[in-house]
Design goal:
Blueprint (H helix, E strand, L loop, with lengths): L3 E5 L3 H12 L3 E5 L11 E4 L2 E4 L8 H10 L10 E3 L5 E3 L5 E3 L4 H11 L4 H23 L12 H8 L10 H8 L3 H8 L18 H9 L2 E3 L4 H13 L3 E3 L4 E7 L2 E7 L2 E4 L2 E4 L3 H8 L6 H7 L6 E9 L9 E4 L4 H11 L8 E5 L13 E9 L13 H16 L7 E7 L1 H8 L16 H4 L11 E3 L10 H17 L2
Parallel strand pairs: 1-2, 1-13, 2-9, 6-15, 13-19
Antiparallel strand pairs: 3-4, 5-8, 6-7, 10-11, 11-12, 14-17, 14-18, 15-16, 16-17
The structure holds flavin-adenine dinucleotide.
Length: 494
Amino acid sequence: MSKKISVIGSGLGGLSAAIRLAVSEHDVTVYEKNSAAGGKARSISQSGFRFDTGPSLLTMPFVIEELFRFAGEDPPEYLTIRKLENLCRYFYPDGTILNAWPDLNRFAAEIESKTTDSKESLQKYLDYCKTIYDLTADIFLFSDLYSASTYTNTKALKTLFKLPKIDSMRTMNEANRSFFKDERIIQLFNRYATYNGSDPYQCPATLNIISHVEYSIGGYYLEGGMFSLTKALFALAEKKGVKFRFNTPVTSIVTEGTEVTGIQTADGFIKSDIVISNADVYSTYGKLLGDNKTRAAKKYSRLEPSSSALVFYMGVEIDSKNLEAHSILFSADYKKEFDELFTKKILPSDPTIYIYISSKFSPGDAPKGMENWFVMINAPNSSGTTGKEHLSIDSTRNVIFEKIKAVTGYDIAGKIRYESVMTPADIEEQTGSWKGSIYGISSNNCKAAFLRQANKSRHYRGLYFAGGSAHPGGGIPLVILSGKLAAELVAKQK
Ligand SMILES: Cc1cc2nc3c(=O)[nH]c(=O)nc-3n(C[C@H](O)[C@H](O)[C@H](O)COP(=O)(O)OP(=O)(O)OC[C@H]3O[C@@H](n4cnc5c(N)ncnc54)[C@H](O)[C@@H]3O)c2cc1C
């Protein structure tokens, strides 16, 4: 039977859920506080430059393709997904430059010629990462973690029997040290903890699954930049009959007892059979439900949000032949950097700098002779009132310029033709993310996978969650899966 469904938020997880529910013949409306769709995955166009605001690297593209096929559409008609020729160029403080070629023989040869590690160590490591993926993906990514049926198939039983192999009892850093001896390679693979906003010196080695995803499944870009995904999902949603109300913040989720009856916006009460919250779980409980009492609300408020980011969008008059579309300039002391981020909660004194230049593959993203630099460092999740006071952005900007000059030889300070910045407080303000976290809650302990909000509320009948702070977590493929799991659970509600 067709249900009236309100989706709060048009982030990628909200769009994924809305599309599936509309395809299943429900009457779906998305309420978005901003003037356009996308949440963290939006776009800035200024002075001839275009920037992706948040995500820049696509992994597990099959998750997106499956969504289009579910809707009866051919993905290439909406999106051009291409494999990166170089996953990332890594610059180290000692002058080493390492290319993460997606061709593993070539990457292994690069490691052998420039570091003290070997082809065999790489192969052994990637086999180990694949084992973790094979054992965990079905349960922890593709299924509803909270349904008994998830644990009663052969694959799940295999995982339960082989639990030690998912390597949850040591940290990512400890595991990586057991495979490699060269500090530069350990740092390279430790970096994957940041793909879900965690600390490699605290998070379980199970997260080495991310290295498998990037090196064995691949790293991808979208023609036209990552915002093409938002545009494509929005177009698909409209085609399938999803209605959108922009500039319409939802002020509360209305309940009678524990039954959800609708949502409240400035335009009044909107009766709904089902509400899907794509808003951050923390604000769904605290602001939208006014709930600080139920077990789930209390549990969530005790969790640690993932790290945040400080991003400079810089239009630069340069032809940076030394840089790739994705480049990393590593810090000299990675442990200290994560202590500053997660323990001291300050901007790193010597940050690892990530530079993403989409105009290298989408020339329309910058005027001729120029490039669009997305310069990002990891930042602590912000607990300040605006987040700006305790972050010395100007001095960090100078540190970044000096480091780019020292490591790559490019002195960009006088070459900037457009610039804006996004702080953790801006992320919180623009997307509603708790403390500006970019991947929901951190996975800094081995229970994190089980602590994330389930896609269906146990307490409020009719309330579902889709997005980076719910199961299975943050990052593009996972939030698309989150929308899928929420929609599948709606289908099961009597
Ligand atoms: C700087 C940065 C870099 C990143 N890099 C990558 C990357 O390279 N690869 C990758 O895979 N992922 C990356 N991510 C993570 C990825 O962008 C997110 O996991 C994903 O986009 C989040 O989607 P979501 O569905 O959780 O919704 P969000 O993007 O969080 O959107 C939620 C939406 O809900 C709306 N909303 C909230 N409250 C209300 C309300 N009360 N009423 C109405 N609307 C409301 C918000 O306005 C927003 O539009 C990055 C993120 C950031 C910020």
